[in-house]
């Protein structure tokens, strides 16, 4: 019987010694015969940039790079100094590799055309999610999506290359900078997590073949916005409380998502009266995490539609997001529909 060298319960020596991210990527490269190593190199470039951002994050309190930068990004959000630093690090890493033709970043107003017409891939990235938490030492992260361009290699990039639905992703992942730094990613063949060993400067496979529990007892939502919620959201949260579920909300998307991915739970950032289109960005936040959660057996929805099937119409498009354990997301969707139906009946 052939065994999986990445499963720890099989007593495999390679696992106990530690499989590095670089080696894991090389061994999995055969999953993408069309890529000729380019996709693997992009993942390595992202990993390299994340090591640098991890270093900067860890010394933020000592090197005066915490706090606000003094400008706002295209979202109208105040940029933190580390937002700018992280954006620069990832832009440099992705542009120097030669595999990427365009980048979409939360910190940039427009698409970054790298003028590399031979590049086969487009990367959408949130360089530093939750950066407002840096000054209080709360976990933050990086979120990324990778797409194959649609237009022929050698031609200039077009809107078609960038505005792709999430179901066209070839890879997606996130880096969590916390008590330990982790890189979690998928290429459509399951989800694997790697923990950074700073003394060796390497990511090591620590969470092979991650599977999200089908249900859980954690719900994550900003309850400070309750007065702006629609009736369906209130019904679901009330139901969670009646079932004595645990409320856990960090305010850092990657951290909340990561906890629920491993332990079982649901993260919600629904539409509100003030933000009817939701708050989170589709291209470089929701799509990436939706790809990951589905590969782990979970579900991601905007309350009505599968996140990965939404056709983006603008670069920084926002979306409501319900994401996590499959059964919990389905329960939320059902309560949303029931409540809306009851309201419509009463209003007639």
From TrEMBL:
Q: Any one cellular component term from GO for this entry?
A: cytosol
**Superkingdom, natural source:** Bacteria
How is its cofactor bound, per UniProt?
A: Binds 2 magnesium ions per subunit.
Instruction: Write down the Pfam families for this protein, in alphabetical order.
Output: FBPase, FBPase_C
Domain called Fructose-1-6-bisphosphatase class 1 C-terminal: residue spans: 213-335
Q: Does the keyword Hydrolase apply?
A: yes
Q: Which residues bind Mg(2+) 2?
A: 126, 129, 285
Look up the coiled coil feature and give its residue ranges. Answer: none
Matches recorded under Gene3D superfamilies = 3.40.190.80, Fructose-1,6-Bisphosphatase, subunit A, domain 1
Cofactors demanded by this protein: Mg(2+)
Which PANTHER family would you find in this protein's record?
A: FRUCTOSE-1,6-BISPHOSPHATASE-RELATED, SEDOHEPTULOSE-1,7-BISPHOSPHATASE, CHLOROPLASTIC
Q: What is this protein called?
A: Fructose-1,6-bisphosphatase class 1
Q: Which gene encodes it?
A: fbp
